[in-house]
Amino acid sequence: MSFDRDADQATRLALFEQVRRHTGIVMNERKWAMLEGRLRRRIRALELPGYRDYLQVLEAKPAEVTDFIDLVTTNETSFFRTPRVWDYFGTQFLPAWFAGNPQGTLRLWSAASSSGEEAYSAAMLCEEFRARHPSFRYRILGTDISEAIVRDACNAHFRGRSAEGLKQAHPHLLQKYFTPRDDGFTANGTLRANVSFRQHNLYASPRELGTHDLAFLRNVLIYFDADGQLAVLENVRRALVPQGVLIVGESESLSRFDTGFVFEQPLIYRNGHSNGATLG
Ligand SMILES: C[S@@+](CC[C@H](N)C(=O)[O-])C[C@H]1O[C@@H](n2cnc3c(N)ncnc32)[C@H](O)[C@@H]1O
Fold first, then answer.
1. What H or E segment, with its residue span, contains residue 277?
2. Hey, how many other C-beta atoms are within 10 angstroms of the C-beta on 251?
3. pTM over 0.85
4. Which of 26, 105, 110, 224 could join 228 in a cystine, given CB atoms 3.0 to 4.6 angstroms apart?
5. Do 130 and 239 sit in the same domain of this protein?
């Protein structure tokens, strides 16, 4: 079947609206080339003649939304992304938290976890910390809106740029916590034992996710508009204990918002509300 590559303005706007409705991600004409490229293969696979027909499928078949979300999200990530954040986590946050909670279980949330590099980076530093403090316990939850990327994170198999980056920056950690397999490296049981993943939209109530001592919310706010960012920040805050830590991405700042978070140092905030983890 021939495929009409052109989409008129109304169709493009309707597709941007579908992206916003299902993910909160804001797109405009500048993003059309990217969106068009991502949708084209799917539309061809469905043997549809063009974008307008795909819109109709999206409206009529709720199951298509899952694939649509997988397609429109950008999942770029890496191990130990933004090293200074990991320096803070390993040398300041973990020792301070453990000193204040020697009997507790640390709960970390990698919100928008993509393929899991962020969660497994945290797990490696937690394991390194536990080697020095055997009574230290932790749990890491990774969540993402894309079901496909959550499956990847559960598989914990890394190759290409992701594996290469870890190999270059931290060869000893790669050797200690991963096993070479096929064309990449798979995380060992030690690293996976305390890490789990599930699908979750940051716009939805965090009630079912439990409460956390620290949330990584990195490189995802940039995709939302100001109202969306505020809504997501409030959801994340509600899933944090009072004084719980929020870590954002390098190009993200809360300074122009009135949120319940208090600035601590660049990229790092604390839940300033005493009613942090009230998920009722
Ligand atoms: C660029 S990646 C960032 C991954 C990781 N946090 C990092 O900083 O390396 C952004 C992730 O946010 C996810 N995402 C986008 N919109 C979302 C939403 N509404 N709820 C949850 N996750 C979302 C995407 O699927 C993608 O995996």
1. none
2. 9
3. yes
4. 224
5. yes
